[in-house]
Design brief:
7 strands, 16% strand, Putative regulatory protein FmdB zinc ribbon domain-containing protein, 127 residues, alpha+beta, two-stranded antiparallel ribbon, elongated, binds zinc ion
Length: 127
C-alpha cells in the first residue's frame, strides 16, 4: 500500500499514512482540522521497524513478516469501517450459502437412505 505524507496547515505537523491510491484523500488524519496530503516524489518505502504482534505475541520484523503474521492469524490489515462492513457482509453471505448447501445435501442423503416405502410415504405428504 502506498505511503503518503500529510501536513497540518495550522501548525505544520507532519504525519505518514498508508492508503490505497483511490482512497489516499479519504478520512485524512485530524490535527487543527483535517490534514492535507503533500504532493511529493514517490519514495522507496522503508521497511517496518520490528514490533511484537498484538495478535499472538510473536516478534515481527519488517513488512514480509507482518504479512505472514496477518496470514498466520487469519487477519487482514484494517482498511476502514466501510471496507470492514463490506467484508463482514461478504463473509456472512458466504457462510449462509455454505450452510444452505450443507442442509440441502443432508436432506438428499436422508431421503436416499430411506426405505422405498418411507420415500413413497414422504412423497404422499408432499402432494
Ligand atoms: Zn495542527
Amino acid at each position: 500500500m502506498p505511503m503518503y505524507t500529510v501536513r497540518c496547515h495550522a501548525c505544520g505537523k507532519y504525519d505518514t499514512i498508508f492508503r490505497r491510491i483511490a482512497e489516499r484523500d479519504a478520512n485524512l488524519p485530524q490535527c487543527h482540522g483535517a490534514m492535507h496530503r503533500i504532493i511529493e516524489a514517490p519514495t522507496v518505502q522503508a521497511d517496518l521497524p520490528g514490533y511484537q504482534s498484538p495478535i499472538d505475541g510473536h516478534w515481527v520484523e519488517g513488512r514480509r513478516q507482518r504479512t505472514e503474521d496477518l496470514r498466520r492469524n487469519h487477519c487482514r490489515p484494517w482498511e476502514g469501517m466501510a471496507a470492514e462492513k463490506q467484508e463482514a457482509h461478504r463473509r456472512a453471505a458466504e457462510a449462509d450459502k455454505a450452510y444452505g448447501a450443507a442442509v440441502e445435501s443432508a436432506i438428499v442423503d436422508t431421503y436416499r437412505n430411506m426405505s422405498p416405502a418411507k420415500q413413497r410415504a414422504l412423497e404422499g405428504l408432499a402432494s
